[in-house]
Write a structure and sequence with these properties.
This protein is α/β, with parallel strands linked by helices. It folds into three domains: about 220 residues, Rossmann fold (3-Layer(aba) Sandwich), CATH 3.40.50.300; about 220 residues, Rossmann fold (3-Layer(aba) Sandwich), CATH 3.40.50; about 110 residues, Valyl-tRNA synthetase, C-terminal domain (Helix Hairpins). The chain has 19 helices and 23 strands. The strands form six sheets. The protein has a six-stranded mixed sheet with strand order 8-9-10-6-11-12, sandwiched between helices. Strands 17-20-21-15-22-23 form a six-stranded mixed sheet, with helices on both faces.
């Protein structure tokens, strides 16, 4: 028997800024009132463009604001906790003071337990805490309250990869319901089983996780396009240019991804077997002539701690370089070294004479709230120079998914995501052959991320990207520089997934250790498995340890294949409606396979540490 919902919104409509944000007449079409029923254990992705009202929807659910029409019903005893995107820490002396504030403060021991797992010192001064420290503190406070319904607004912002993995694992084990807004596609695909789509004032729901969202979205837009044929041409242009653009962009991006794979294959052929930074071409002189940044034996230390150990790298024109690692591993230091903002302790950094860069940093330089969009892009005029070509400002706004009618809108009225998109539009117009992007995906909606991938792919120059967004890196970069915190820089042809695969698997023919070298003997005919090197024997390992060390990498690959197959099946947006039992069976199998893979990886790494020791 189906359980009653823990929360229901019925017939909701909301006026905001003189317009109906939900449930009212929208641009010549009627938007349905919001009706939403949340069941125990629901795992919901809330999707919508910047400015669609996603955060406002969470605030309505949390009863922070009241709707102009409709009712909100909550099952008695239901505890709702809202993890806000930017909570206010200003009234508090320490992070712990923040965590224990309010009438619904969690127990101190519960906060401390979660904070310990997240690696955050709650005695840290709130005023001087970094964005990552504040985000961890907010997560500790929210999770320690043991909510029945958890509302997550961009939970992975400011988190490093280790913290994101921890949060994903916690949410997989969580028994309550959650709704999450996130630009992190990997996070959404791994965790959600149903999708809420907020689109032009209407909230739609489909019982398929984020993996099936894009197919569902395109089905809806295709149907609208057929209906639009009955409308006059002017209305079609104004109401549907964005939808057609999104669908066309995704189709174009399929071709760009194929080109990216070809570029990665070419780069892989230049990287030496050890994964060291020495890049080679058959014609070395030709390679050198195309190099725009050359790092020779560079290193950097602080207080006797090696942040970057000596390594060499040649970056060619057209390379897209991703820099990944935990917070504090040295990503920003490496970026500053490569851009010559920082001098290395040893070695040299050489730039091509023609190199000219634009940097978009994670702090998102403040835009004047009273300035108009036209002021920001075109200094108050009608035309903008886009990398040397003149373009009308309203046409350029459409390129960045803005309604051209917003040209005279004040910046202060725009949502945080819209302001980020406006900043990207301004910076990408500048003439440059080097783009430096520090956490560029924060506050961007999914359509803008698609656009950003397209702009990077079409950029005629070199790109350096620091990001924790795994999906974004997989779709944009040709080379990944991975930092593990020891000072070593791994160089891998490909994206985040390629770096992650290299980290968790032993190097073929060599023992896995910090230096990337070992004394394992190579396989010979007659040794049994001719495809891999024999694992190194160690007196420290038991027979079971030795067997697990040898066999777990293959088991991990099997589980990865099973997970990929399950995710592909669940991506069918009609599967739940056609066969709910199969959908449930595959979902449970997928969750089990992920848990097994996580356990296998942890087990292998545990044994690998013994081998390295």
């Amino acid at each position: 028997m189906a359980q009653p919902p823990i929360l229901s919104l019925e017939g909701l409509a909301l006026l905001q800024g003189g317009r109906w944000l939900f449930g009212g007449p929208q641009a010549g079409r009627g938007a349905d009132p919001v009706n939403l029923h949340i069941q125990p254990g629901d795992r919901l992705a809330l999707i919508g463009r910047n400015g669609a009202g996603k955060t406002t929807m969470l605030r309505l659910i949390d009863d922070q604001i009241e709707a102009d029409r409709g009712t909100r019903r909550v099952k008695p005893g239901t505890r709702i906790v809202f993890l806000q995107q930017e909570p206010d820490f200003s009234p508090f002396a320490t992070l712990m003071d923040f965590a224990l504030s309010g009438d619904d403060a969690p127990p101190t021991h519960a906060v401390e337990a979660i904070a310990g797992q997240l690696g955050i010192d709650m005695a840290t001064d709130a005023a001087s805490a970094s964005g990552g420290e504040k985000r961890r503190a907010a997560i500790a406070r929210a999770l320690a309250q043991e909510p029945d319904l958890l509302l997550l607004d961009e939970p992975t912002n400011h988190l490093d990869l280790g913290a994101i993995d921890w949060l994903e694992d916690w949410l997989r084990r969580y028994k309550g319901a959650f709704i999450t807004i996130s630009h992190d596609r990997t996070f959404l695909k791994r965790l959600t089983s149903a999708t809420l789509w907020l689109d032009r004032g209407t909230l739609r729901r489909k019982e398929v996780g984020f993996g099936g969202y894009e197919a569902w979205e395109e089905q809806v837009y295709a149907e609208e396009a057929r209906l639009a044929e009955k409308l006059d041409a002017k209305l079609k242009i104004e109401a549907h240019w964005l939808e057609r653009g999104v669908t066309a962009r995704r189709k174009r991006n399929q071709g760009r991804l194929e080109k990216l794979h070809q570029m990665r294959a070419a780069r892989a052929a230049m990287i030496s077997d050890s994964g060291a930074a020495k890049l080679k071409l058959a014609n070395d002189e030709e390679f050198k002539s195309k190099s725009v940044i050359v790092a020779e034996g560079i290193s950097k230390s602080y207080d006797d701690r090696a942040i970057i150990k000596p390594f060499t790298l040649r970056i060619q024109n057209g390379d897209r370089i991703g820099i990944v690692g935990a917070n504090g591993a040295g990503k920003t230091t490496l970026l500053k070294l490569l851009t010559k903002e920082l001098e290395p302790d040893s070695g040299t950094i050489t730039h091509a004479r023609t190199l000219s860069g634009v940097m978009i940093d994670q702090q998102r330089r403040l835009l004047e709230p009273d300035a108009s969009v036209r002021d920001i892009l075109a200094e108050g005029g009608d035309w903008i120079d886009v990398r040397g070509q003149r373009k009308h400002v309203q046409a350029y706004l459409k390129d960045f998914l803005f309604d051209p009618k917003l040209v005279d809108t004040k910046v202060g009225i725009l949502s945080g995501g819209e302001r980020s998109r406006l900043l990207l539009a301004r910076e990408f117009a500048r003439t440059a052959n080097l783009l430096v992007l520090d956490e560029p995906t924060n506050d961007l909606d999914l359509e803008t991320l698609d656009l950003l991938q397209e702009v990077i792919a079409d950029f005629d120059g070199t790109v350096l990207i620091v990001s924790h967004d795994r999906d974004f890196l997989d779709k944009t970069v040709t080379i990944t520089l991975g930092l593990d915190g020891s000072g070593k820089v791994d160089i891998v042809a490909g994206g985040y997934a390629d770096w992650e695969a290299k980290r968790r698997k032993p190097v073929v023919g060599k023992a896995r250790n910090a230096g990337g070298a070992g004394n394992a003997r190579a396989s010979k005919p007659g040794d049994g498995d001719k495809s891999t090197a024999s694992a190194p024997k160690s007196d420290k390992l038991s027979y079971k340890d030795q067997r697990d060390y040898e066999l777990l990498p293959a088991r991990i690959e099997e589980l990865e294949a099973a997970i990929a197959k399950g995710e592909a099946i669940l991506a069918d947006p009609d599967l739940f409606a056609k066969d709910p039992q199969r959908f449930s069976t595959i979902s449970k199998g997928l969750e089990n396979a992920r848990a097994q893979k996580d356990a296998a990886e942890e087990r292998w790494l545990e044994i690998a540490e013994q081998v390295e020791g």
